């Protein structure tokens, strides 16, 4: 092995997704921001019990992709057809109930903040696609109940993501990782696309990644955080300054305050939130040349075992 291989941090290069459907499979086409490079996932629809995904290892140009899709359309014209199912901005993950797997995707987003040249988005709308083909689906009477419970979760309320910035880590950590790659090392042989591990307790969709984590490259995994992200542009002595607030909620011991308090046997506490205040010069977009300052606070419940019987609620006497 050579000693001049460098880890270059890269999160998710794919920002535009189009899902096509055939009788036997879903074809997920992912494109980069400029739509000049494409990758493909093939998801089997003929197995109700397991999720089978094949990642095409070839990177297609736009012309090659059109030619490939044309070939697939011709080959499926007599066996169920070939059609565009949905356009989306990312795959949140996969979940299984009693009738097979479902794929949850982001269909609408809005930009809420920028940190240097990194854009941060808020989820505005989602959709859920059933993977299993209707011809082989075995109907279960309780499936609707579980689907309704999942649909009651509002994914448009406080869920954020970024393709190029790791929202699960603090600014200090992200800057340290970036500074490990200096400009001189980029002229040598280096490993492009190494992805650093996120802080798992702030990855809200960690469970939704379990079924695909071993089947696809990590560049397909989009990390979603739950909390609040706000940004304001301030004018300080005729200088534009961005004030950014990032609040990350932990998903390890989450729940309402009445049901979750104290800590659990794994060391996680209830209502844990990491709050980060960031100030940076808005006149420069480069993280390496601009000026930043960050202040991080961590709060949570008292790390002690706590329980409460909901049936033993005292009833105060009614006084006239």
From TrEMBL:
Keyword hit for Zinc: no
Entries under InterPro entries matching the protein: Fig4-like, SAC_dom
UniProt-recorded name of the protein: SAC domain-containing protein
Keywords: Hydrolase, Membrane
Pfam families: Syja_N (PF02383)
GO terms classed as biological process: phosphatidylinositol dephosphorylation
GO MF annotations in UniProt: phosphatidylinositol-3,5-bisphosphate 5-phosphatase activity
Keyword hit for Repressor: no
Lineage top rank: taxon: Eukaryota
PANTHER family: POLYPHOSPHOINOSITIDE PHOSPHATASE (PTHR45738:SF5)
Domain SAC: 150-320
UniProt-annotated location(s): Endomembrane system
One Gene Ontology CC term in the entry: endomembrane system
Upper lineage: Eukaryota, Metazoa, Spiralia, Gnathifera, Rotifera
Broad class of the protein's primary localization: membrane
